[in-house]
Amino acid sequence: MVRDSLRVVPAGSVDVTAPVTIDGLSYVDPGDPAMPMYRVIANNRSPVALRDLMIAPVRSGYIGDGRQPDPALVPASGAEAVPGVAVDQVYLPVRDGVARCQLYRPIGSGETPLPVIVYYHGGGFTVGSSEDCDFLARKLADTNDALVVSANYRSAPEFMFPVPLDDAFDVYRWVTEHAAELDGDPTHVVVAGDSAGSNFAAAIPLRARDEGVRVPDCVVMLGAFADFQFERWPSFLALAPRGIVYDMAFAGFIRGAYVGTQRWDHPWVSPIDGDLAGYPLTVVVAGTHDPIVDSARAFADRIRAAGGRTVDYFPEGMPHGFYFFPGVHPEEDIAYRVVAEALRDVFGR
């Protein structure tokens, strides 16, 4: 039974994952000699910083702007597509407060300790929330008879690397030590994510090893994002200039927004460049029409070259995010079956 104290923000703490609006001028010393001009610019536009100006329309239209002229093109909701899953909400400790997380558990499982999947939503490190990935979390819980902890985290550009990863890692670390408090089985813990969330999932084993924390039993990457050095991959050069879901302009923006001045080949930023010796079993999923598919393939290759194991699924013609909407592509359902088959052994079934 999840204790009530986890369902509220503790007194004196703060939910760091709650959306915040940060004035671009807050980063500038009030005594800066350039401040008079910055105030003139702020009088003319809001947001004042270009990074905030550029991300605003993406955030307002990421999932949709409310226009749905053709009802036939509206996919089922997560609850409609996967109804047999109960959803709860908790606030788990992270270094600056708490992070809001949603819990997904198959109905009928009672309080039986279930294996745990810590899941990170996508959104290019800059947008999105656990609610946006409701279908994905439900599907993972249902097809694996598992407890899914769908974690929120702070977003760039307001919070740059390593802050979003800090949130993701802190939630994972808490779960490894306290899974039983969520009616989870601490002996079976997996990390998973889609797109940007898959980047966090891939970085978790490397950071866990570096910091002496239990390494996850498996990594699941949907829309596998293992490398910020986009331009070295032929698929990116061929598909990104005019891409729809992932394109060159957005890729460049999120790299600057999230990675900032950090090296692009830092292993917690681009896990493909990490020391992959002892890396856990990894499920790598990406469509062949995804601009980052070549880096996904290469990540799987490097894991195997380091002695690890991978389960790969690269469906022909599929774009980035083909697994996101229920019933749009048959390959979506196959992807979750591939994951479930891989996790069956991990969970000792």
Automatic annotation (TrEMBL):
The UniProt entry, under SUPFAM superfamilies, shows: alpha/beta-Hydrolases
Q: Where is the Alpha/beta hydrolase fold-3 domain?
A: 117-323
The organism encoding this protein is Mycolicibacterium chubuense
| UniProt KW Metal-binding keyword | no
- Any one GO CC term of the record: cytosol
For this protein, the record's PANTHER family field holds: HORMONE-SENSITIVE LIPASE, TRIACYLGLYCEROL LIPASE
Q: Could you cite one Gene Ontology molecular function of this protein?
A: sterol ester esterase activity
Q: Which domain of life is it from?
A: Bacteria
Keyword annotations for this protein, in alphabetical order, are:
Hydrolase
- At the top of the EC hierarchy, this enzyme's class is hydrolase
One record GO biological process:
triglyceride catabolic process
Task: Please give one Pfam family short name.
Answer: Abhydrolase_3
Cite the InterPro entries for this sequence.
AB_hydrolase_3, AB_hydrolase_fold
Q: Give the protein name, as stated in the record.
A: Carboxylesterase NlhH
EC number in record = 3.1.1.1
